[in-house]
Amino acid sequence: MKFFVDTAEIKDIKDLAATGMLDGVTTNPTLIAKSGRDFVEVIKEICSIVDGPVSAEVTALDTEGMIAEGEKLAKIAENIAIKVPLTWDGLKACKHFTSKGTMVNVTLCFSAAQALLAAKAGATFISPFVGRLDDIGQNGMDLIADICQIYSMYPNIETEVLVASIRNPNHIIDAAKMGAHVATIPPSVLRQLIHHPLTDKGLAAFVEDIKKSGQKVA
Length: 218
Hints:
The chain is α/β, with parallel strands linked by helices. It has 11 helices and 8 strands.
């Protein structure tokens, strides 16, 4: 499974990229607005840090507007993935860009039917929002299972399942077990993956034992 980080905070991106585990970044207008910086400048800086796909979202609602915005975003760097909403206009824009070899992330997916449409339109990534489904009493991971099953039935579908709106480590593990290709994760949740009380307990015991022995490695 590939790990993308869902943020526009440069400090977090640099820190996580230094681990070698970061495969890409997803952003949206809300995340960039929180950074308080210029949209294009933020995207350009992120692309200079991360070699993998960087999703940059259009704000227009019509196909022509999405294409116009997407063309500008695509010029920022070669690893830009144009992010479009799962609407008819968004799917038309998706087809336009993927036909030109530009990566497209189709976002705001909440049903398997929508995911199938995105794949037919040639989407590079489909972004189902599991956390938001959980919020309204549905099981977001059921959607991931459905999409993975459907996509696996058709070898000609190359669209990757990019699990979004992740709220906790269990979402990531469950998605990985289902065969999802990518998880886009908030920095705080990504850092939670490393924690386990037995790791902490074992490390504390090792440190205490070496102190008692009076030995040093160097």
